[in-house]
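G., the chain you wanted modeled:
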Amino acid sequence: MIPVLTTERLVLRPFTPDDLAALTVLHAEESFWWYPLRRGQTAEETKDFLSRVIERYDSDGFGLEAVEDRASGTMIGWAGLAVPHFLPQILPAVEVGWRLGGAHRGQGLATEAGSAAVDWGFAEGGLERIVSIYEPENIPSGKVMERLGFTFERVTSGPRGKTVHVTELTRRQWEAHARDDAHG
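Predicted structure as tokens:
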């Protein structure tokens, strides 16, 4: 079952086919898909993306989720755990990822969403390791990974020939980070 995760400001919930219109608007933003596409997605690409995400709930057992502003219920992006099928050289793996609309960046929301997904993955999902992947030029995403406790694992080539950095967080690191936070 795909979880519904609630944070102070966000709700992460499974996508449904009814999300297509709101997702199409977000995906059309050039900055939303700048890494890796360097452009927005078309309506057809977004429809294919949404279908794939929903199908993977069954095939993978989890997947990316719609991120809603808790106060308004507006979809502002997506985040969550997914198998990084696009990077077969690191499989088997589970990745945490996020994308937010431009108006919702720089407010700590990616960290909040990523943290909720990571916590669920280790506490409820039984994972031993989670990765996160970014192009080195995408400094804000790299900073979110650092805040979440991820450490550098390797450099590899992404599906479009771009260099990507793979970071990782193990259950042991996550537990130690949680203990440190509990002790102030």
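The mean pLDDT is 96.

Shout if anything looks off.
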